[in-house]
Amino acid sequence: MNAAPPPDGICLVFRSSPRMLCVVRAAVRQFLAQASFDEGLTERVTLAIDESCTNVIRHGYQGCEDGLMELTLGIAERSGRSRQLEIRLADEACKAPSEAMKAPAPSAPTTPGGLGLHFIHEVMDEVCFDENVERGNVLILRLGCPEAAEPNDGARASSGSDQGPGGSSC
Amino acid sequence: MNAAPPPDGICLVFRSSPRMLCVVRAAVRQFLAQASFDEGLTERVTLAIDESCTNVIRHGYQGCEDGLMELTLGIAERSGRSRQLEIRLADEACKAPSEAMKAPAPSAPTTPGGLGLHFIHEVMDEVCFDENVERGNVLILRLGCPEAAEPNDGARASSGSDQGPGGSSC
Amino acid sequence: MLKVDRREVDAATVIAVEGEVDLYSSPQMREALLAAIKAGSARVVVDLTGVSYMDSSGIATLVEALGGLREKGRALVLAGLRPRVREVFEIAKLQTVFTLAESVDAALADG
Amino acid sequence: MLKVDRREVDAATVIAVEGEVDLYSSPQMREALLAAIKAGSARVVVDLTGVSYMDSSGIATLVEALGGLREKGRALVLAGLRPRVREVFEIAKLQTVFTLAESVDAALADG
Ligand SMILES: Nc1ncnc2c1ncn2[C@@H]1O[C@H](COP(=O)(O)OP(=O)(O)O)[C@@H](O)[C@H]1O
Ligand SMILES: Nc1ncnc2c1ncn2[C@@H]1O[C@H](COP(=O)(O)OP(=O)(O)O)[C@@H](O)[C@H]1O
Description:
The complex is a heterotetramer, with 2 copies of chain A and 2 copies of chain C. In chain A, a hairpin with a 7-residue loop joins strand 4 and strand 5. In chain A, helix 2 runs antiparallel to helix 3 (115-123). The longest helix of chain A is centred in the first third of the chain and has 22 residues, at 39-60. Chain A is an alpha+beta fold. A 5-stranded antiparallel beta sheet of chain A has the order 1-2-3-5-4, with helices on one face. Chain A has helices spanning 21-34, 39-60, 115-123; strands at residues 10-15, 68-77, 82-91, 126-129, 137-146. By secondary structure, chain C is α/β, with parallel strands linked by helices. Chain C has helices at 26-39, 56-70, 83-91, 104-109, and strands at residues 3-9, 12-21, 43-54, 75-79, 99-101. Chain C has a 5-stranded mixed beta sheet with strand order 1-2-3-4-5. In chain C, a hairpin with a 2-residue loop joins strand 1 and strand 2. Chain C starts with a strand and ends with a helix. The chains are: A alpha+beta, C alpha/beta. Chains in contact: A-B, A-C, A-D, B-C, B-D. At the A-B interface, strand 1 and helix 1 of A face strand 1 and helix 1 of B. The complex binds adenosine-5'-diphosphate (2 copies).
């Protein structure tokens, strides 16, 4: 792992300890707020990221608390008045089966297994592993969202071309 | 720069854009809160870190907004009932003169120059550059503080030995 | 980070939770729920007024408690959900599985 | 992230600031202050009730405005500082350099 945030992005590198989840959420919330995401979307995306981290801690590192985790948040301008949030979560755990992050089959409501995965898929547009990674896992979450109105910041140029923070697609 | 947080620590990697400062502060505040720092100390340390980042943005990268910055927060248990907060702020800017972070001389109160540096020294016990770094700068901030009472978490073992997150001293 | 308080009110146990419920903190809530189940009161009310965030581990903990109480013919009521927390129950499609109340008072009155 | 509002009250200009003042946001506060100085009112009141955080760039902005107003024989009053913000002024040893008021009303009455 070699943390390098996209422009206007940020990386968090931390160990697979549940204690760190609240710190990750605080950073995610403020990152989305400064990018003018509304509060509802901010809370849903925060939930999706938290559940993704929880999965790595529980299933990837299986409770071992000193595994490395690297969360990268970036926002790419897209053509027109829309932009795309791209989240990458890298770990050094054993390779997860490629179907591990697939949307769970609808199940009886009181079966809690798969609930985290359900949340992630409900919130995000795309959920997949980066197939080009050799060691560990890189989970990619993407969400298209409208361009924010930024009343106090006229400096933000709205570019017409697609400048994604990463290069890989699902 | 190669982000690797100490156990129970966290690294933030971001670009030298003033927009990111509020995200950094949110993460720092929650990191200190989960480590049971009280609110007053949390706000003072957050200020010292914010001012250190501001210095790198203004003086290190001179306003260029895509310089890399890496902030590492760690807490080392010390002997007895005390612990030490260690903060490292790495950049890839030109080497700062080694006296750049020395405490400013007391000046007339309405001279704003040097105010940030004054804040950092007022809040932290130790402020210095890591001399062992070849490229860029690594600023180290240290603060000794009493061991936190953790009413809801008896799992935290209080070790009797000095386990610093880093190895270098000022 | 989570604050969990338990008190007995007539035949009910009220568990007041404050803070964010996640993988780190949900075991604290679980402990209080298991103690309340053991204590045997006919109705367990979880006061979520002070909860600003809940993830799937929090929901799973509440689902577990619901099962444990129902099989003994006892009731679990969730009181005071904030809109953000309520939304998590809705995404989970569990808002109709649980008995929800506006407030602890409503949960206790509605016996 | 910062909200800055300017309004005229009798012979005073009141600038209400809300949010965190740092290197990114202090230019917004500075702009409002420069406009108020230009507008020429005898007294400029900065309402800091809504400010939860201020760093040295915020303080430097207020020091600059204080100088600009004083040299013209006009007044700058800072109103409603929260304890955390007040502490930053204290660490800067500037709490006695500025005129502080409990609230905007007090700042306006105390003419
Ligand atoms: N990082 C991962 N590595 C391996 N398996 C994973 C990973 N993340 C998720 N999974 C798989 O996906 C399943 C569903 O996860 P989740 O929705 O969090 O539900 P739960 O953990 O409550 O069973 C898990 O049971 C696990 O098998
Ligand atoms: N990262 C850095 N690189 C080079 N010089 C620095 C750096 N940080 C601080 N300095 C020096 O320290 C001085 C004091 O900084 P500061 O307290 O922030 O006051 P101000 O920036 O308001 O002048 C600066 O004028 C600068 O010369």
